[in-house]
Amino acid sequence: MEFLGSEQHKIINGDSVKVLREFVDDNSVDLIFIDPPYNIGKNFNGYKDKWDKDEDYLEWCYEWLQLCINKLKKNGSLYVMTSTQFMPYYDIFLRDKINILSRIVWYYDSSGVQAKNYYGSLYEPILFCVKDIDNYTFNANDILVEAKTGAKRKLIDYRKNPPQIYNSEKVPGNVWEFPRVRYRMEEYENHPTQKPIALLERIIQASSNPGDIILDPFSGTFTTAFVAQKLHRKSISIELQEDYIKIGLRRLGLSDSYKGEKLERELKTYELQKINSKQFKLFDTKINTKKMWMIIQQKAIRRKGLKTDFILTLSMK
Description:
Strand order of the largest sheet: 1-2-15-14-3-6-8-7-13
Number of domains: 2
Helix content: 25-40%
Shape: globular
Mean pLDDT: 87
């Protein structure tokens, strides 16, 4: 186990259950966002998230779910995600332990889902829970979205006196449409289940205030901590794998090296192709002959110390 980061943004490299049990105080966290392994066989840097039995997976989930509830302050909120097939078990487990206020659907379009013999999945479920139904943070004005009835259609509510146009903004419903993180997106990191910044922005803006402590027990690409930092919240991030720890340290600007390794964003294939194309631009057919020989001349002089006159003589032949 290793403790990294700063006082404002703590990073703990270790097993989530052990860290939650031993190093995070009860009743100390304002908001928890949980995006655990889904038990569907995703490859996390060589580790496959597939338990031998579903019962073993659920037993493990129930353990950290209860620990997370314990860590919440009395007015705290908890958001938890999982696969569609396991969310019903989460829901039933949590019902008599915490108040479930909303069952949210994160919808996304995906050209990668091309099922032929059944209906492909285009969403992931999220539970929004609070400890005290009469005392919790919900900043509605910070997450307003367009209300088409008023903003686009300009319909009038005749039930009011005098009649007036419907509001142009509203609190989002429980179906959220955000695109999944794609390879060419600026925010992309090398992780199979990265969640989008926009999703975490809505959650953190709605259910916390500046200075609040946000806990993410399965940090992955550290999007939770990244958004918390951006929105002036504090964060506690737990992650088991060192490769993802390095992403967190770099992404939050907490360190430029880890165990002697310089932390740099991994270049994408199309970025490498651009670099290679610049290096080999010498062989571009559009380049003029004079410019080409000037480049050859410069490179030859640097590498072999050949005289300019000799190269120019060659170029004239």
